[in-house]
Design goal:
The chain is an all-alpha fold. Helix content is about 65%, strand content about 0%. It folds into two domains: about 5-205, no CATH class; about 225-310, Ankyrin repeat-containing domain (Serine Threonine Protein Phosphatase 5, Tetratricopeptide repeat, Alpha Horseshoe), CATH 1.25.40.20. It is built from 16 helices and two strands. A hairpin with a 2-residue loop joins strand 1 (about 285) and strand 2 (about 290). Helix 2 (about 10-35) runs parallel beside helix 4 (about 70-90), helix 9 runs antiparallel to helix 10 (about 165-205) and helix 15 (about 295-300) runs antiparallel to helix 16 (about 305-310). The longest helix has about 40 residues, at about 165-205. It is elongated.
């Protein structure tokens, strides 16, 4: 896809700006706190070295988002929840008045951005392999959620108990409980971020719109959208897409998608509609031990306008 089309995703730019600003604030707050020797509130997590590492990771993520790199989406999913903790730690006197940092509310920024970064339009811009459940980031977020859940179980199991009746024993018990709460915070903030983001990213995969026009198939397994794309019925394709059909559904025989067949048949307008709807521009058909992309079949059939369209959306042979 060319640069002009890439600029049509404001949330990608916003996500990059957001993480870079977050990184700058964390670095600035951490260095100032270290330089001034500021004391931390008793319930705040002290993590200056970890905060610097998180900030540098966030900066890398931001650069990757600006450059439209697919790996940067995955870094965003993993690193940003820790950024909210690091920001609270960097400005502990102002942002850590209770058992958890006020910055934990940044989940309301993180989750919508994670949702947008998993859309088909974003995946096209960052040249993702496809728009499957795994490629969107759901598998990664599920793994992060499960990991943090297991860590939390271990932390809960380490809860201090008992203690003597002397002032010294009570002081030690209070200190142990405070450290226990800090460990819980380090688990709970990313855990909730990952869990809610997993749900948000998975919604389009887990639920189909009512009246999905792909339900109807012929004896070869071709969907209604596939057949309409093959036969050049522009109005029908528009209506099917409007009804919420899955644009990348294949024919269950060779793996041919609506975009592939429309590219081979030379239906320019339908190819454009499918690309705008988020069709995977590099979906391959498997036949006779060979793999054919929409671009390769369009070249073979001599459809120059379609070749141009596909290349604009990042197609490869």
């Amino acid at each position: 896809m060319d640069d002009k089309k890439k600029l049509n995703l404001p949330w990608l730019v916003f996500a990059g700006v957001y993480v870079v600003i977050l990184a700058g604030l964390i670095l600035g707050g951490t260095f100032v706190s270290m330089g001034n020797g500021e004391s931390y509130p008793g319930n705040a997590v002290q993590m200056p070295i970890a905060s610097i590492i998180i900030a540098l990771s966030l900066a890398t993520t931001g650069i990757g988002l600006f450059c439209r790199r697919n790996f940067s989406r995955y870094l965003f999913f993993v690193i940003v929840p820790w950024g909210s903790i690091a920001l609270g730690s960097a400005f502990a006197q102002a942002l850590w008045r209770e058992d958890a940092p006020y910055t934990s509310c940044l989940i309301f920024v993180y989750v919508p951005l994670a949702f947008l970064l998993s859309r088909s339009s974003t995946l096209r811009v960052v040249s993702a392999k496809d728009d499957t459940w795994v490629s969107r980031g759901s598998a990664l977020l599920l793994a992060c959620t499960m990991a943090m859940f297991l860590v939390r179980l271990a932390v809960v199991d380490s809860k201090p108990s008992g203690g003597g009746s002397s002032l010294y024993d009570m002081y030690n018990m209070a200190d142990s409980l405070n450290e226990y709460v800090k460990r819980l915070v380090l688990c709970d903030v990313p855990l909730w971020n990952y869990a809610v983001a997993f749900i948000a990213v998975s919604i389009p995969i887990r639920f189909k719109p009512k009246g999905d026009s792909n339900i109807s198939r012929n004896t070869d397994g071709a969907s209604t959208l596939y057949m309409a794309s093959q036969n050049g019925h522009v109005d029908i394709v528009k209506q099917i897409l409007k009804d919420g059909a899955e644009v990348n559904i294949d024919d269950k025989r060779y793996g041919a998608t609506p975009l592939w067949i429309a590219s081979g048949q030379g239906h320019d307008e339908i190819v454009k509609l499918l690309l705008e709807a988020g069709a995977n521009v590099n979906a391959r058909l498997h036949r006779g031990g060979k793999k054919y992309t929409p671009l390769s079949i369009a070249k073979k059939e001599g459809h120059r306008e379609i070749v141009r369209l596909l290349k604009e959306y990042g197609a490869i042979d």
